Amino acid sequence: MDPRESADGAVAGRGVAASLLGDVSSLADDMLHYLVDRIPEVGGDAELRGLTLGSCSSNLEAVLSMFRHGIDVAAAEAPVTALEHARAMAARGHSVDVMLRFYRLGHEYFTEKLADSLVNWIDDPAVALRTFAELERFGFRYIDRISSLVAAEYVAELDRRQNQARADRDDVVRALLAGERVDSARAERVLSHRLTGRQIGFVCWVKDRGVDLEGFAKHVGRHLGDGHPLVVADGPLAVWGWSSARDEGAVSLARLAAEFPGPSEHVHLAVGSPHPGAAGFRATHLEAVRTRRVVELSGRGAPSITEFGDVALVDAVARDLDTARSFVAAQLGDLARDGAKERGERAALLAVLDAQGSLTAAARTLGIHKNTVLQRVRRAEERRGRPATVKVAELHAALVVCGVLGASVLPEA
């Protein structure tokens, strides 16, 4: 293109820009109607409509003034009303794509306005075309820059709000777990979680990263309760969760591994018992945390699903490990050793006690002959130094604790 022809287009464009600047208010009103007709999210939101009008007006004035005075697009800054419009969109939960539609459609409006009006301002079709090209090129670059700036502000506002929401949520969770008095209505609103009815707390944890732990925890929560679980991160490798239990009674955890086979191969899950109300929120969580402690003390390598009810006795006895070791040593004597023979004898004795003295039932449980069970029970009694009929309750408790925690509660060699 002849440089003089380009210059003619630029000169004519500055004249057009000057003419449009005199009518910015009318143009902004017209652009607002154009956008409202095409973006239903504006709807009846008076504040958003007002910010949209302000953004239209300030952006039109900025782009036309910059073109008129030959100011490089790189110097453009997003108008205050445009930034506030982006923050309002984030606050209302509209997506960034919806927010950017205002700019794409605003550019479309501006292009159509230029195409319809240039022939009325410039008689020479060639000059009119060059003028249109100059204005359109500048307008596109302006919108490209401004849309990037407002998108960044949208993301920053979203982050601020999410961080604030997370801080508010964590504060409510802390207060509930500390047993402080809380406004239940506000707490439910902040947590998006119902505190009425039975609460079930659970803890999910992994050894290594690479598992969608939060996603798995939400699956668990929906399985346990009403479909709106609360999930809170506890560092990078664990999450706490709560669910409002269904009314139909106990929840079967046996199906959980089958329903989520992939994650359940990597994730440990500890589940508290259901407890009512805000106080139950704390109680069930503490049970889940204590269940996790029992699982970790047991040294289990493979991920598992463990309910508090299954380890409540172990938790009670082993709350203080030194006391638990003393209790086990006192009840089991030489049977409290971490050897293969002692483990087999303890297992046989526990199976017999669980079966209320039936050697046949114990043999079936262990998968061995009942004579073998009898021999192991006799050796166990010898190591213990007294018959299994002496202090049966204490003996049974010590064997259960050993069966779960193993070397953690056996005396040091």
Automatic annotation (TrEMBL):
This is PucR family transcriptional regulator. It comes from Mycolicibacterium frederiksbergense. Residues 26-168 form the RsbT co-antagonist protein RsbRD N-terminal domain. Belongs to the CdaR family. Residues 348-399 form the PucR C-terminal helix-turn-helix domain. InterPro entries: CdaR-like_regulators, CdaR_GGDEF, PucR_C-HTH_dom, PucR_C-HTH_sf, RsbRD_N_dom. Residues 185-294 form the CdaR GGDEF-like domain. It comes from the Bacteria.
